[in-house]
Amino acid sequence: MAISAHTTHTALRTTAAAFAAALVLAACSSGGGGQAKGSASSGASKAGSGTRVTVTETEYALKLSRSSFTPGTYTFVTDNAGKITHALSIDGPGVENAKTKNLQGGQEATLTVTLKKGKYDLYCPITGHKQLGMNQNIQVH
User: Fold this and answer.
1) Residue 5 burial (CB count, 10 A)
2) How many CB atoms lie within 10 A of CB 132?
3) What strands, in cross-sheet order, belong to the sheet with 89-92?
4) Beta bridge partners of 49
5) Distance (Å, rounded) from C-alpha 77 to C-alpha 65?
6) pTM to 2 decimals?
7) Non-local CB neighbours of 37 within 8 Å, separated by 6+ positions
8) Is the dihedral of CA 115, 119, 123, 125 positive or negative?
9) What DSSP letter does each residue of 18-81 carry, written as one string?
10) Contact (CB, 8 A) for 39 and 108
11) Residues 73-91: pLDDT tens digits?
12) Which of 118, 7, 6, 103 is nearest to 57 (CA)?
């Protein structure tokens, strides 16, 4: 039994259409888009349970809504007001590598940590951004 060129062409078209539909479904279900409000926790704190501190990130600076810190739980609300990808990372006594996910311009995420007395480093962990000025040291008294 011979297969006609028309049958082969129709089968290829159907296969290509099914493949394209599968790609569209995979792209739509990957969750990549829209506003992101994530949270990460270090220092055994519930996300959102601490004193709120806004961290505004731009190219290439961090601006904190407060400069005085005492021991306790803080929720850092990170707002990427810049145009490129940024994130927030915090390191200090009892807190290591606590960080938000990467944020596109206009996105926001929270990071809740418990701060003890001592010095903490807040910075953008994206390669090169800390060295370009996205770095703040805070002292908890």
Assistant:
1) 7
2) 12
3) 95-99, 89-92, 118-123, 135-140
4) none
5) 10
6) 0.67
7) 108, 109, 110
8) negative
9) HHHHHHHHHHHTT---S----EEEESS--TT-SEEEEEEEETTEEEES---B-SEEEEEEEEE-
10) no
11) 999 999 999 999 999 999 9
12) 103
14-72 confidence digits (pLDDT tens): 444 444 434 333 333 333 333 333 333 334 344 557 899 999 999 999 999 999 999 99
Distance of alpha carbon 52 from alpha carbon 65, whole angstroms? 9
Question: Exposure pattern of 76-88 as b/e (b: 16+ CB <10 Å)?
Answer: bbbbbebeeebbb
Burial class (CB in 10 A: 0-12, 13-18, 19+), 133: middle
Contact of 124 with 130, CB cutoff 8 Å: yes
* Block residue for tokens 């159907």: 14
Q: How many residues does the chain have?
A: 141
